[in-house]
Design a protein that fits this description.
The protein is of the alpha/beta class. The protein has two domains: about 100 residues, Leucine Aminopeptidase, subunit E, domain 1 (3-Layer(aba) Sandwich); about 325 residues, Aminopeptidase (3-Layer(aba) Sandwich). Helix content is about 35%, strand content about 20%. The chain is built from 15 helices and 19 strands. The strands form four sheets. Strands 6, 7, 8, 9, 10, 13, 14, 15 and 17 form a nine-stranded mixed sheet that branches. Strands 2-3-1-4-5 form a five-stranded mixed sheet, with helices on both faces. It has a three-stranded mixed sheet with strand order 11-12-16, with helices on one face. Helix 6 packs antiparallel against helix 10 and helix 8 packs antiparallel against helix 11. The chain is elongated and about 80 Å long. One of its GO terms (biological process) is proteolysis. One of its GO terms (cellular component) is cytoplasm. Belongs to the peptidase M17 family.
Length: about 450
């Protein structure tokens, strides 16, 4: 739901911190103050109260903003107000400014998200007037990019295979007048994308490489997203409990498409390239096998010690391609390892980079836009763990230690350009303000905010 235009009928919404609640209430008319006291409004985080006028119509609405300590434990608090307030048009009248106001506005838009492709669309409730003092068009663009990511991840694999992911990429390219090229099926072999073809060849749905280009001037940014539309684990088949969420294994692709929407929508002055290896890791007579040795686009050989570590294989070929036109920055995003979830849980986006400058820019930006990230190390002493001896690289080192780091080190072998890798989850396990359970973007808003500093825009 976009912002709405201001009208005389808009209901003033006051955001009230717990510490300032008593003082705020003294500024209200007697009837409104008494009503708030009778309803027990204290400014506690998440409290919502509609104050009626003498005719019983809404005079104003109050939203409790709690204490700074309480707010620090979550984010997107205004999403609670958007969900709880009765139907109507609201205008934030007091209590927020600067970054807090931007976050509140975005939270309101994201709180309206419902994945209703397979059921009757939900009736939209409260709407918000575009707050004064923010770039409303930018916030709407960011929300649209996030909603694109959520919709792609939430769509089951029956309706989101490589072909459907291609269609989504084509729709995005068309929207922003970008160029797109797709290499499909057996054409991947003469085009020298052997590992993308190998991982996807067992599926009835052909593997492909999606390649979007936009912009004609400025530094080049290349985004690479893991597009494994469903992952059975291959011949190292996953147990049922681990396969249940594998529709989200294309979360990296969904996130870079959402990020690309944001970048093009706000018009960043750069040249953008988006590469997505789109495959389904299935089981058939021609599926690749444990102990196979594959030769990558870069020429490095890879021993397959687990067919369920397929994401790094398709990314490797795409990363090699990304490097071939010398971009100023390459960023990959992938739902790559369970080890990353063990390390930081589902809410943080771990990232790897050799650049302290890029790491600092990302961490600062993440704090500003409420999109938390955490730097992980490209730890050189672990390089030996991905060198099996029989081939150049091992796709699944034994031992179980440092799985996210060894996966990142594997990917780094295929990139010479400045490189950042995100090992994201792409899923909200339990509902939170403005983030219903299900697919979710991670890291994209932090990257968008950091790009001007990282690329000197």
């Amino acid at each position: 739901m976009p912002f709405v235009k201001a009208t005389d009928a808009a209901i003033p919404l006051h955001v009230v911190e717990a510490e300032a609640c008593e003082a705020f209430l003294t500024t209200l008319p007697d009837a409104a103050r008494n009503w708030a006291a009778q309803q027990g409004f204290t400014g506690a985080l998440g409290q919502v109260l509609t104050v009626p006028d003498a005719a019983g119509q809404p005079l104003m609405a109050l939203f409790g903003f709690g204490t700074s300590a309480k707010r620090a434990r979550s984010r997107f608090h205004m999403g609670t107000a958007a969900a709880k307030l009765p139907k109507g048009t609201y205008d934030i009248a007091s209590g927020l400014s600067g970054r807090d106001l931007e976050e509140a506005a975005l939270a309101w838009l994201l709180a309206s998200y419902k994945f209703d492709r397979y059921r009757k669309p939900a009736v939209m409730g409260a709407s918000l007037v575009a707050p004064k003092g923010i770039d409303a068009a930018r916030i709407e663009t960011i929300a649209q990019g996030e909603i694109l990511t959520r919709n792609l991840i939430n769509t089951p694999a029956s309706d989101m295979g490589p072909q459907e992911l291609e269609e989504a990429a084509r729709a995005l390219a068309s929207e922003f007048d970008a160029d797109i090229n797709v290499i499909t099926g057996d054409d991947l072999i003469p085009a020298n994308f052997p590992m993308i073809h190998t991982v996807g060849r067992a599926s009835t749905r052909a593997p492909r490489l999606l390649d979007i280009r936009w912009g004609t001037a400025g530094p080049q940014l290349t985004l690479v997203g893991k597009g494994v539309c469903f992952d059975t684990g291959g011949l190292n088949i996953k147990p049922g409990g681990s396969m249940g969420l594998m529709k989200k294994d294309m979360g990296g692709a969904a996130t870079v498409l959402g990020l690309a929407h944001m970048i093009m929508g706000v018009g960043l002055p750069l040249r953008l390239r988006v590469l997505i290896p789109a495959v389904e890791n299935a089981i058939d007579g021609n599926a690749f096998r444990p102990q196979d040795i594959l030769t990558s686009r870069k020429g490095l050989t890879v021993e397959i010690n687990n067919t369920d570590a397929e994401g790094r294989l398709v990314l490797a070929d795409a990363l090699t391609l990304s490097d071939e036109d010398d971009p100023e920055l390459v960023i990959s995003m992938a739902t790559l390892t369970g080890a990353a979830r063990v390390a930081v849980g589902p809410d943080l986006s771990p990232f790897f980079t050799d650049s302290d400058t890029h790491a600092s820019a990302l961490s600062k930006a993440a704090a500003q836009v409420a999109d938390p990230v955490w730097r992980m190390p490209f730890h050189a002493p672990y390089e030996e763990m991905i060198e099996p001896g029989i081939a150049d690289l091992d796709n699944a080192p034994k031992g179980g230690f440092a799985g996210s780091i060894t996966a990142a080190l594997f990917l780094r072998r295929f990139v010479e350009s400045p490189y950042i890798h995100f090992d994201i989850y792409g899923w909200q396990p339990t509902a939170a303000p403005a983030r219903p359970a299900g697919g979710v973007g991670m890291g994209a808003r932090a990257v968008l905010e950091a790009l001007p500093e990282m690329l000197g825009l």
